Amino acid sequence: MTKQEFDFYLPEELIAQDPLEDRSSSRLLVLDKITGETEHKIFKDIIDYLQAGDCLVINDTKVIPARLIGEREGTGARVEILLLKRQENDIWEALVKPGKKARAGTKISFGNGLLVGEIVQLADEGNRLVKFFYEGIFEEILDQLGQMPLPPYITHQLKDKNRYQTVYAKYDGSAAAPTAGLHFTKKLLEQIAEKGIIIANVTLHVGLGTFRPVKADNILEHHMHSEFYHIEKSEAEKINRTKKNGGRILCVGTTSCRTVESAADENGFVKYGSGDTKIFIYPGYKFKVLDALITNFHLPESTLIMLVSALAGRENVLRAYEVAVRERYRFFSFGDAMLIV
User: How far is CA 195 from the centre of its chain?
Assistant: First the structure.
């Protein structure tokens, strides 16, 4: 199976640059995973497709302001650091630009010395391990100096950084937002709960590996990066009870999907606890937990479009994307949504 089989034409002007004022007013393309038929709705209509006894699984990770701009000590050269994953003792795995001169021992100053990072060693994929020195609380300093790590295809400045957070974001740790969740408002979630739909929280800290392009022509040669996930016992019980009672599991976003599929046993029941996942879902994969998926429109040849193709079939997905392009849907992080049922 080649990455070219997941390519599609996307006019650049359909890449959403700004979030809508009302989160739940995004458009919603509903795709029947069996027939391939599509419907056009508004996101708040999603409640009409949910039934009492279903379980909606959301990822409550919180994006940290992980993009830091500093100066190399000694030369004053501009250096950009993107925090990817916390290790221990204030050491982070990070992406450093420019990387060629980012050798071990290099020190970078942020905020006139309020925060100093020292490159400790090289890591996988050309990343670096960076140890930070500061006085006070790291999270407070990061909130003061850091910027939201918006994807490179978004060129507009984000006016309100909370718009790159879900309304239910809780636990710091992500380098990117679980963007399917950006469409939900607190009011819509209340209406969903009032209808008798169970809401289960899981946590997966989104790394850049999810969004890295697939470089290998043969997708089976693609290397997935690991991401940390955690599921509380009470939340696993909600999901498992729903399955036992014959309800459907609807995941909000590919990150929620990958979390429950990673934590499931061979019978499709979710085990609570923490772990690291490198799960790569592509056509041929048999879903153990998930029945339906709420997701955004993804990049051509990405692991994310491969995941949705595993659920609804590659041909159905690519036809639906053709419809979305023709109907001028908005694509990617701040774009419109798709419900696959």
Answer: 27
- For residue 182, the number of C-alpha atoms closer than 13 Å in the C-beta half-sphere is 27
Amino acid at residue number 148: M
Residue 161: burial class (beta carbons within 10 Å; 0-12, 13-18, 19+): middle
* φ, ψ of residue 74 in degrees (nearest 5): 100, -45
Q: Read off φ and ψ for residue 256, nearest 5 degrees.
A: -65, -40
Question: What's the pTM value of the predicted model, to 2 decimals?
Answer: 0.93
Please, what CATH class does the domain formed by 3-63+160-340 belong to? alpha beta
The DSSP H or E segment spanning 322 is helix 314-326
The domain spans of the chain are: 3-63+160-340, 67-145
- CB distance 118 to 83 below 8 Å: no
Instruction: Give the CA distances from residue 40 to residues 28, 181, 268, 324, in Å, rounded to whole numbers and listed in that order.
Output: 6, 19, 32, 9
What string of pLDDT tens digits covers the 341 residues of the chain?
Answer: 999 999 999 999 999 999 999 999 999 999 999 999 999 999 999 999 999 999 999 999 999 999 999 999 989 999 999 998 888 889 999 999 998 888 999 999 999 999 999 999 998 778 999 999 999 999 999 999 999 988 889 999 888 989 999 999 999 999 999 999 999 999 999 999 999 999 999 999 998 766 677 889 999 999 888 899 999 999 999 999 999 999 999 999 999 999 999 999 999 999 999 999 999 999 999 999 999 999 999 999 999 999 999 999 999 999 999 999 999 999 999 999 999 99
Question: Using CA atoms, how far apart are residues 128 and 84, in angstroms rounded to an integer?
Answer: 10
Q: Which amino acid, 169?
A: A
Domain 67-145 falls in which CATH fold? Thrombin, subunit H (2.40.10)
Reduced to 3 states (helix: H, G, I; strand: E, B; else coil), residue 234 is: helix
